[in-house]
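Let's inspect one such protein example.
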Amino acid sequence: MVYQLRIAIWMAVFAVWTVSAGAVEFELGGSYTSDGPNGNSRVFTGDDGITMLRATAWSLTGGGGTTLSSAFLGRYGAGLGVTNDEEGTGGNYSHTIGNNVMIGNNIVSDFVLLEFSAMVAPDELELRAYGSPPDTDISIWQGTFADPYNNPLSLSGLTVAGLAGFGFSFLEHNMGPVAWSRDAEFNTDESYGNALLIAATTDPNADDTIDRFKLKEVEVNVAVPEFGATLALLGIAFAGLVGLRTIIR
């Protein structure tokens, strides 16, 4: 009950907060490392110098290739990539966000979870195709949670179908041409949230080309309040805190 109230407060504040939006870019490229401990996270600051992003890696390596488990998130010159438990030390192009591994009859897709310090409407991802032949088909989900940047989410044990019950809304399958890096534009409805989940496509109707890419850059619009919204914002926050204190008692 307390957690649900915190989300309600967050969304109520956002209803006042979303007056205008400022474009913010996150550059995710960096130093090379292809393997390490699962469950690591990487933190980035947007080019506004304020908005923060926490990134973690997940992969469908549990339950015989049906449930999510934590993976290693590598950072490379071309962007973020994933090394899961089935990929050893990440050689032979396997340290990418991909779906190039099978467990039984199940295709193992890699996921990258982005948790933001503010409500954002993401609209573009720079994807760097990697390997031969590479493809950059992706599936995207979005959610709103109680401050996930400071309270990181755990997706362990979730199935793709179970993401909805956890709090994620499916946005789209976003398909690109084979063997091309690209800027993937999406979320034309400008839906806001504070968590974004990106996967090498889980669409059963996608083409048969293996997806292998790195996530180089993320572009979002950050909700920015105007001065006239300040009093309403403070009032909602105060009412929420009073209600939370009453429940705790």
Summary: Residues 230-248 form the longest helix (19 residues). The chain has two domains: 1-19+228-249, 23-224. Confidence is low (pLDDT under 50) at residues 227-231, 241-249.
